[in-house]
């Protein structure tokens, strides 16, 4: 387990801000984003104001305003860190 000063709520709000910011950059209303994503406009409003949304709906919104590969990259394990000098020398 990792120690973090971030909470799940902090991240939810940051993601909501990112979607809202990108929606505005694309000059999309909530209604237009709803049509594009298939997520109802009231759900988009709730997400932008509270950060509350299902994962599926978040992914639908994200792929409508940004590259879904950026979210998918979160599931990629980080490269392993060498545990010994032998591993460092072997990989050099």
UniProtKB/TrEMBL annotation:
From the UniProt record, list the coiled-coil ranges. Answer: none
Q: Tell me where in this chain the HTH cro/C1-type domain is found.
A: 19-49
In which domain of life is the source organism classified?
Bacteria
Which InterPro entries is this protein grouped with? Cro/C1-type_HTH (IPR001387), Lambda_DNA-bd_dom_sf (IPR010982)
- Please state what the protein is called: Helix-turn-helix transcriptional regulator
Q: Which organism is it from?
A: Billgrantia zhangzhouensis
- Source taxonomy: Bacteria, Pseudomonadati, Pseudomonadota, Gammaproteobacteria, Oceanospirillales
């Amino acid at each position: 387990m990792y120690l973090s000063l971030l909470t799940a709520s902090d991240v939810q709000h940051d993601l909501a801000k990112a979607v809202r910011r990108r929606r505005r950059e694309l000059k999309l209303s909530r209604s237009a984003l709803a049509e594009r994503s298939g997520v109802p406009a009231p759900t988009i409003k709730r997400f932008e104001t509270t950060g509350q949304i299902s994962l599926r709906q978040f992914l639908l919104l994200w792929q409508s305003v940004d590259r879904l590969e950026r979210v998918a990259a979160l599931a990629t394990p980080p490269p392993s860190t060498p545990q010994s000098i032998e591993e460092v020398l072997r990989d050099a």
